[in-house]
Write a structure and sequence with these properties.
511 residues; mainly beta; five-stranded antiparallel sheet; 35 strands; globular
Length: 511
């Protein structure tokens, strides 16, 4: 497959000779890595890049300095690299600045628990100087029958919860019939509230569409084949899912946000394995003939070259909505690529979920086997290649962080909105203080960076429910005094960002 893909990339390159980019964007290499599979950054420091290597390592890149941040392979838990197995992606935790914790999705060995190839979502805390991290298991999903269609994207949503994409379990045509089955987590996007170090290690956020009824509580959306990459638009909280197709069509799904900071698409059924893109899947089960309620994609493209410079390929690599004014005409467009053609393309998303994308075009940029796009904390975009190179998309201003975009003509999307979303990427820390055998405990909440966050309200949750609220001091600290009756769990919440859960038990006096 990779030899074929590289041949297709070479042919496409010959066709594109002399074709100018529509955007004046270029690809600037930032380094070579061992099978790079994802790129992100520290939430509060866009210049601290985290490059994910498929065999199980996370590499920190700061300018010309490179260091090992965490090595999951040293734990012997990452199953790599049969077919699509390996470390799949990471998501830095909201308190990353203080804890260094990140969430990771990977296919595991039996040492991770379960069978070879099961998908695991765990939290990890690095050791000083990099190397073997501390593992905090969160969620495991059986996936041992086939080594492909793992999904594996992780993102902290605009609502502060962890979103997870999972493929249908592999094979051809969804042999496990996972896509339409609400009793399995395969072929889904999940939404959970991770609580590393607590028991249970995650909760079900309010608003999950199948919580308490038929279907798994963790499911947010379903009917997906292999949602390898998805993303959120930080300007309006829209959810974009790029779902890898079977043999005919590749698709982009859009869930519009109903309000700022609220994710749309709860309970959406994107149709697999009844639908493939806009068409009926030729190998669909008999029950699909009478099924309805599927959500069409906003864009799809074929595997066969339709000519005229239109998109085609074999496996979509989803990207991000660009918010980088340095990229000129690319700003505001959704960027994606195809693994087989290597061509970076972009399109204009519709104003509502019922519409279709428009203006699809090539950007005149080619990458050999683009495995993933990535985005740092100030909105700069990256693309990883299967030849080991990671590139930054940049314009004439080089790699500087772009300023927030100006307000749109309609005023619906403004620079203020984007800045507010980015400012929420703060670390929230909860500390506890208690004298032995005292029925009272003091809880100290701190938010960093401080700056304009001073004076804002912070909430204290007890047992998963709102318990008390206070305003942050000039130093962004709030102190709570609580009475304990028995074991209790507490969490601080600030503008959608959540601290680690703290459990306090009232110790009995010594006899």
């Amino acid at each position: 497959m990779r030899r074929i893909a590289k041949a297709v990339v070479l042919a496409a390159a010959l066709l594109l000779i002399g074709v100018a980019s529509a955007t004046a964007a270029s690809l600037a290499p930032i380094g070579n890595f061992d099978q790079p599979i994802f790129v992100t950054s520290a939430p509060a420091n866009p210049d601290e890049l985290l490059v994910v290597e498929r065999p199980g390592r996370v590499i920190r890149v700061e300018g010309a300095t490179r260091s090992l941040y965490a090595d999951l392979s040293a734990l012997g838990i990452v199953s790599c690299c049969l077919s699509e197995r390996g470390l799949l992606s990471i998501a830095p935790a909201p308190d990353f600045a203080s804890s260094g914790r990140f969430y990771a999705a990977y296919t595991g060995t039996p040492a991770a628990g379960g069978e070879e190839g099961d998908v695991h979502v765990d939290a990890f805390r690095p050791t000083p100087g990099g190397g073997t991290p501390t593992r905090e298991p969160i969620l495991s999903i059986p996936h041992s029958l086939h080594p492909n269609h793992n999904g594996g994207q992780l993102e902290i949503g605009p609502d502060g919860y962890l979103y997870i994409s999972l493929g249908d379990g592999g094979g051809s045509g969804d042999p496990l019939e996972s896509g339409q089955d609400l009793e399995t987590l395969l072929g889904k996007v999940l939404r959970i509230d991770p609580r590393p170090g607590a028991e249970p290690p995650y909760g079900i956020p309010p608003g999950n569409p199948f919580a308490g009824g038929p279907g798994r509580d963790e499911i947010w959306a379903y009917g997906l084949r292999n949602p390898w990459r998805f993303s959120f638009d930080p300007l309006n909280s829209d959810l974009l899912i790029a779902d890898v197709g079977q043999g005919l069509r590749e698709e982009v799904d859009l869930a519009k946000s109903p309000a700022a900071g609220v994710v749309g698409g709860a309970g959406a059924n994107y149709g697999w394995n009844c639908r493939e893109g806009f068409i009926a899947y030729p190998g669909a089960p008999e029950g699909c003939a009478s099924a309805s309620g599927f959500i069409d994609p906003v864009f799809d493209y074929p595997h066969a070259d339709p000519g005229g410079g239109a998109a085609y390929g074999c496996a979509i690599t989803g990207g991000y909505v660009v918010h980088d004014s340095n990229l000129g005409a690319l700003d505001g467009r959704y960027v994606y690529a195809d693994f087989c053609t290597g061509e970076i393309r972009s399109l204009v998303l519709p104003a509502d979920s019922g519409g279709r994308a428009s203006g699809d075009r090539s950007e005149g940029l080619l990458v050999s086997g683009p495995t993933s796009f990535g985005e740092d904390a100030c909105g700069r975009l990256y693309v990883a290649s299967d030849d080991g190179t990671v590139y930054r998309l940049q314009g004439s201003a080089g790699g500087v962080c772009p300023p927030p975009p100006p307000a749109s003509a309609s005023g619906a999307q403004t620079a203020t909105a984007l800045r507010a979303v980015r400012d929420k990427r703060v670390a929230v820390r909860l500390q506890t203080r208690r004298r032995p055998h005292s029925p009272f405990a003091r809880l100290i909440v701190s938010v960093s960076p401080c700056g304009e966050n001073a004076g804002a309200s912070v909430q204290l949750h007890r047992g998963g429910r709102g318990f008390a609220g206070k305003r942050l001091s000039a130093g962004c600290i709030a102190r709570f005094r609580v009475r304990l009756g028995q074991k209790a769990t507490f969490r601080a919440v600030f503008e959608g960002q959540r601290s680690q859960v703290r459990t306090i038990a009232l110790a009995k006096p010594s006899p």
